[in-house]
Structure formats: structure tokens, C-alpha cells
Amino acid sequence: MKVPVLLCAAAALLVARDNGGIRPRGAASDYPAHQSAKGVTIAAAVIPPEQVSKLFATDLNKAGYIVVEVAVYPETGNEVEVKSRDFLMRAGSDPVTLRPVGADTIAARLHQKNAPKAPPAPGDVTIYPTATIGYESGGYDPVTGQRRSGVYTATGVGVAVGQQPGPPAPPPPASTDRDRTTMERELADKGLPETRTVDPVAGYLFFPKPSSSKGKNGPYHITYYGEHEQVQLDIPPFKK
Prior knowledge:
Low-confidence stretches: 1-17, 126-140, 143-155, 157-162
Number of strands: 11
Mean pLDDT: 77
Helix content: 10-25%
Radius of gyration: 29 Å
Order of helices and strands: HEEHHEEEHEEHEEEE
Shape: globular
Strand order of the largest sheet: 1-2-3-9
Strand content: 35-45%
Structural class: alpha+beta
Largest sheet: 4 strands, antiparallel
């Protein structure tokens, strides 16, 4: 009877790995915050920006995301359904509740942000400011009768049709469909697995940074809406 049990446990672990994620820490107490509810313990840690840069090739700091490592520890013999949408976060005293953003959404936004802008089509009109500087000598002021001379400046507006004024600027680096797929795969592979499991699982959740300065430096309040009970976690700010 032991063989089927072992096979089931191994199969559950393989399913969790196939769905992405990272290796959970040895125990829930190894995380800065952990809390138990009916049949499960949730643990979490906010990853400092400098560590995020080492963990991901995708620039999540510049893109404006907070990375949270989350681990789920089911009680022995209890199966738990893990879903990223069951987690919400508030940062500092900011009242806004943040939801995790999926890998596909992050990759799509970065892909769109890095896409080069199309050059103006033939016939398009571009308006741009102009400035002139020179030296004037000769002639008399009709009011004062004095000779005019010296440096002068003038400003105006130029119009270009079908092209940008001046030499063409180098095109910005483009984000290709392949880049987008690579970013999405990296984030999905390390993200919190979406699975049912009897074994501990862990992964990262990606929350948008709050727009208000009230949530800039934490602490971070995580709420897990489980199948039977809510779990509240207060994660202290990471040390700089």
C-alpha cells in the first residue's frame, strides 16, 4: 500500500513543477511572515529590488512591480488549490488594494512600451520650434538715430512635411515577439503555480507599485482568500 501513496505524492510534485514555481523554503518559519488557517499555512516575503534584478532578466523594477515570494504549505494529507487570484496586497498606509498581474500581461505591456514609433508618413506635417542667433552691423535706429550692432536672437516655428527636422534620430531598441515570449516564459516559470497539491509549493507574485507615496516603503499586507478561511500576513519592510 505504500507504493501508491509514494507515487501519488511524486505525481503531485511533478504537476506543481510543470506549472512553474520555485522550491519552497524548508519551513514556513523561514519566511518573514507566515500564518496558518484551516488545513494550510501561507508564508511570504517581499523581494528587495536589488535581488529582483538578479533573479529576473526582465526589468521588473523599472516596469513598476513589487515582487513577493509566496509559499503554500498544506497540512499533511490535505489537498489545497493554489490560485494567484486568491492573493491581494496593500502597501504601507495606501488604502488601494493591489491584485497580482499575470506574466502574459506584464510581457505585453513591456512589449508595447518598447515598440518603436512609426516614422511620419509622406504628407504628414510636423511642427517644431526654431531658434536663430547672429550678429547685426549697420543701419540706424529710426527712433534714436543711433547705429545698431550686436548679437541678436530670434525664435519661431518650422514646418516639415513627411520627415522630422534635422538629421534622423537612431531608432529605439525594438521589442520583438520573441522577446515578449521570452519575458512571459521567464515570469511564468517562476510564478506561483496554479495547481491542486498536497505538497508545499512556492513562486513569485507580481504586484503593481502603488501610485501613492504612502505605500512606497511598506510594510506590506497580504490577504489570502482560501477555500475555507482568510489568512492575513503583515510583511515588514525589507532592510536596505
